[in-house]
Amino acid sequence: MSGTLCLVGGTFDRLHAGHHALLEAAQSCDRAEVWITTDAIATAKDPRVESFSVRRDAITTWSEDFTVHPLEDSWGPAPHRSDATHIACTPETRANCDRINELRAEGGLSSLEILEVEHLLARDGQPISSSRIREGSIDREGGLWVRAADLDRPVYMVAELESELKTPMGTLFPGPEDTPEVAIRAAIEAIPTFCPCLVAVGDVTVHALLDAGWVPDVGLIDGMTKRTVWEGTIDTTSFAGHLQCGNPAGQLTPDLLECLDLALDFSFSEEGGPVLLEVDGEEDLAPILIHLLAPLGTAVLYGQPSQGVVLRITDEEAKAQCRDLLNRFEVS
């Protein structure tokens, strides 16, 4: 396409396989400009969207064929750029491109040739999108963090994982064992301003949060602490929902996975609220499943015996780490 210039616009959060397909279409022209939404526009859509500089650098690192510019409105330069010849889009933004051509016609400019790129599909047959990545269901290539096989049978922790799992998977906030509220308050202060969900694992952790005036969106308890019966009580009236499931020590069961999924869904629903999940057995390994299920930005708190409280914010790294751990569990 000699002398051609393609314009591409979008947010381009967490550059994924679908973005790659769109940008590859734009590369069929001699030149291509990518216009990405500014931080002000992007964070109004979702505070978890990466910064402009991160999104820009992801594109230029992926390919040096593009120049990247800030997009500060709905249309960008497309309605009035006389040197532009093409515009790339996906099916849901096709109508915007048609409108751009109408505006160009009103201004006496020729229409842009529209390069419409079909969505790439994730493993579940649904489109790969930045919003689904932020929601926590897929990775950037469309792989599922939670798979059908995870619901088929329980898995068992292997001995070689014991030392790895004893290492805090997150930031440890130390505090006296007999006054857990010290560590809890420090951890609470470290939670980002925008946190879509707070999950607390363990009777002592849930109890300390409630005492501090915080009701977790999902709380997991098993009536035990350090493998002995916990003598305290949880104020269940703080929770709108109450679920029970079975999960023997050293295992991760489909029952726990399904109940965690239900609890997260209920906590996000308009008619829902905080959920207390009572585990018959042990909830120590539950953070592995929680990170796989949870949306990005979720704060997961759990106690570290005799040390304090661990806080880990669910991000893509946490999901990948937990997926790797779960893959290394044994099937009976």
Describe the overall structure.
- The chain is an alpha/beta fold and 332 residues long.
- The protein has two domains: 5-135, Rossmann fold (3-Layer(aba) Sandwich); 148-331, no CATH class.
- Helix content is 32%, strand content 23%.
- It has eleven helices and 17 strands.
- The strands form four sheets. It has a seven-stranded mixed β-sheet, sandwiched between helices. The chain has a five-stranded parallel β-sheet with strand order 3-2-1-4-5, with helices on both faces.
- Helix 10 crosses helix 11 (316-327).
- The longest helix is centred in the last third of the chain and has 15 residues, at 254-268.
- The N and C termini lie far apart (58 Å).
- The mean pLDDT is 95.
